[in-house]
Amino acid sequence: MKTETRRKLNFAPLLLFGAALLWSFNGLFTKSVDWDGMSLATLRGLIAFPLMSLLLFLRNRKLTNPPRLFTLWNLLGGLCYVLQALAGLSSYKFTTAANAVVLGNTSSFFVILLNLLILRKLPTKKETLVCLILVFGVALAFCGNLGPGGALGNILALVCSFFYAGVFFCN
Fold this sequence. Notes:
Elements: H1 2-24, H2 26-32, H3 37-62, H4 72-94, H5 97-104, H6 107-117, H7 125-144, H8 148-170
Helix pairs in contact: 3-4, 4-8, 5-8, 6-8
């Protein structure tokens, strides 16, 4: 029994490494294909949907009281994820992959903003400092790529980040 558990625990870091490796090539592969963001997001969704459905089915089959999957917050989170993927993949087409990645990972700023505006939760001093650093980084990213296509890509990356924050906020 212990050997089975040990194998499962040792297998998880390998899967995580594989996911990180594939995720790190996201920008490169997106730039190398001539498809638009909508086509890429659709293809990714068509590949992910059956795999995620199978994983949910296998997980819920083992549970005696499986969680409800279709709540309002889950559906809003799913919609945010779809819009995040669409904006993120589109941003790679219009700006540098570095700008898209940096701006796409500023979602913590938007989580803090959503908490402030919707839940009326004030940020801590540490969170405020992080937000100031993020704003400075965003300004650098915009200054580094002022062409019309670059600006559109930067804006799409920020939209991607906003919807990614929505995924966390809905969760």
